[in-house]
Amino acid sequence: MLKALADPARLEIIRLLKNSGKEIGCGEVGESIDLSKSTVSYHFKALREAGLTFTRKESREKFVSLNYDAFNKYLSGFLDSL
C-alpha cells in the first residue's frame, strides 16, 4: 500500500477521488491531472492491486472509487491529511 502511495500522480488520483466523493472515470481523471489515459490506467491498476481502490467497467469506460475500508483499517487518518 505504501509503495502504491509513494507516487505523486497516485496521490493526486487519491486526492481527486476523495474530494469528489464518488467514482470517477479514467478519462476524467486524466483530464484533471493532465495525464494520458494509458498512464492513468497504469496508476489505477497499481492502486487497485494495493487494495486502495475499486474499479468498475461499464462498456469501454472504467470507473474508479476509493476503498474506504482499506484506508480506515490500514491507514487511519491518511485521507484526512490530503
TrEMBL record:
Residue intervals of the HTH arsR-type domain: 1-82
Record-linked InterPro entries: ArsR-like_HTH (IPR011991), HTH_ArsR_DNA-bd_dom (IPR001845), HTH_MetalResp_TranReg (IPR051081), WH-like_DNA-bd_sf (IPR036388), WH_DNA-bd_sf (IPR036390)
Gene3D superfamilies in alphabetical order: Winged helix-like DNA-binding domain superfamily/Winged helix DNA-binding domain
Key words of the record: DNA-binding, Transcription, Transcription regulation
PROSITE patterns in the record: HTH_ARSR_2 (PS50987)
Pfam families attached to this UniProt entry: HTH_20
NCBIfam families, sorted: HTH_metalloreg
The protein's name in its UniProt record: HTH arsR-type domain-containing protein
Upper classification of the organism: Bacteria, Bacillati, Bacillota, Bacilli, Lactobacillales
